[in-house]
Amino acid sequence: MDQFFGRAYVFIPCYLDGRALKAVETEQGSYVSEMADRFSEEVSNRSWNQFERGTLGRFSFNFYGESEKDTNCEQLPGDVYFTLNQRTQLCILTIVFGVNGEPITQLLDRVSREGIEIANGDERNASFYEYLKANHGLQVSGKARVCLSTGQKLSDILKPSVFANEMFESDVMESAGLLPTFGQGCWQENIAVYNSSEIYASKTTVLRYDSNLDNGDPELSGMSVNAIRRDLMLTFIIELLMFREASIKRANLRVTHSIQTDEKLELDDINDLMGDFKAAILFWDLDIFLYPSAQQLADSLFEKFDIDRSLETYRKNQSFLEQRVNLSNAAQAEKETRTINYIAIIVFFFEAVPLLFVLAESLIQKKPLNMLAIYSGIAAISVSFVLFVAILGIVRMRRLTKKAVRS
User: Fold this and answer.
1) Each residue's pLDDT tens digit, 227-253
2) The CA-based dihedral angle spanning residues 24, 27, 32, 33, taken in that order and rounded to the nearest 10 degrees
3) Taking the model in full, what pTM does it have?
4) Could you point out which of 100, 109, 187, 316 has its C-alpha 20 to 30 Å from the C-alpha of 398?
5) Average pLDDT, the chain
6) Which positions ≥6 away from 168 have C-beta within 8 Å?
7) CA distance 178 to 159
8) Contact present, 172 and 31 (Cβ < 8 Å)
9) What burial class does residue 189 get, using C-beta atoms within 10 Å of its C-beta: 0-12 exposed, 13-18 middle, 19+ buried?
10) Helix H segments across 167-306?
11) What are 79-108's pLDDT values in tens digits?
12) How far apart are CA 237 and CA 301, in angstroms?
């Protein structure tokens, strides 16, 4: 029932931990060069030249079995490509499958539960995410998304499972089927901007239907260059949006970690935590797409992917962190003021005692006042007072500077 003919693209957001990402040699005309050409034609040149592209190779992926928990699955080869932003070290991996009638929803289910598995040496069911971390220094930093492209219509009963990224007639759900009202049915809206295809999207899945594809013509079926080239009208936009969301998720992970660990933070720490987001501002360039048609499709997908919610979460966490720093600074300022007052009292005591002693001695013994001692005492007290005011002024100036930088 969930057989599929076409191509499946799995987009995985990652962060490179500082290692050099080694690519396998690629031929001209491959997905790598086609994607680079699309970027150069459709994306502002102040942005596209900051990306490095390559392939990690071909892997055998667990694709489908008797159930979603089956460990003896049929496997399907998938080509793994990467696009690395050199400035931010954010990386989007794209797994490309050519699907020829295999059930598709188990793959979607594996993507949802972050259970993508590969054959790695003698291990048949190795975690792909763990492999990426151990062998390439790539840390997955967000939820993956899937784009399906086909020339054959999907049955209406299958579509809710596809757009929910769930297995159709899952044993876990007692073979219960999702209702068409899933997600308020927002995935039923065709958001395509050209008449060559229909495009439908949910938060996790994009479906592209192109009647010219996968209908017997080998030049426009499977993993043919022409089929992939037609898909690139959509997939290059998805890749950029994945970078946009990954920049937020990466920054938000660091902010959330600081909140949970209850670290003592200063203003400089806040600026450092914001560094990832500042460095990734190019992904939020309103003019990053050269053509309004690409921008319109990107805006529609941005809304479907609900990326604004991630941005709002980041802003709330950032605001909470700044409030915590403000409270910490206020407590520190009060402590500093108290300390300065204590020091001033002690200094005043030691400077004033000799003067008071001279005055008392003169009154008791009825001797003339030692004016030199009095002048010396007054001068010492005056100097102490000036130093106290100067120190207090420096402390207040530092607080005002911090507030100005924060604002």
Assistant:
1) 999 999 999 999 999 998 888 777 776
2) 140
3) 0.76
4) 316
5) 79
6) 1, 2, 103, 105, 158, 161, 162, 177
7) 9
8) no
9) exposed
10) 225-261, 267-273, 275-279, 292-305
11) 999 999 888 889 999 999 999 999 999 999
12) 9
Q: CA 163 to CA 202: how far, in whole Å?
A: 6
Q: How far is CA 307 from the centre of its chain?
A: 10
Identify whether the C-beta of residue 213 lies closer than 8 Å to the C-beta of residue 148: no
Instruction: State the angle between helix axes of 225-261 and 307-365 in degrees (0 to 180), rounded to the nearest 10.
Output: 30
User: Rounded to whole angstroms, how far apart are CA atoms 190 and 200?
Assistant: 5
Confidence of residue 174 (pLDDT cuts 50, 70, 90): very low
Tokens of 323: 């409030």
Contact yes or no for 32/43 (Cβ under 8 A): no
Q: Alpha-carbon distance 34 to 340, whole Å?
A: 67
Non-local CB neighbours of 352 within 8 Å, separated by 6+ positions: 377, 381
Residues 6+ apart with CB under 8 A from 143: 13, 204
Query: Among residues 190, 200, 198, 128, which one has the least CA distance to residue 158?
Result: 200
Strand 205-209 with 145-150, pairing = parallel
What is the per-residue pLDDT for 129?
96
Please say whether the beta carbons of 232 and 251 come within 8 A: no
What does the pLDDT look like over 259-284, one tens digit per residue?
666 655 555 555 665 666 666 566 76
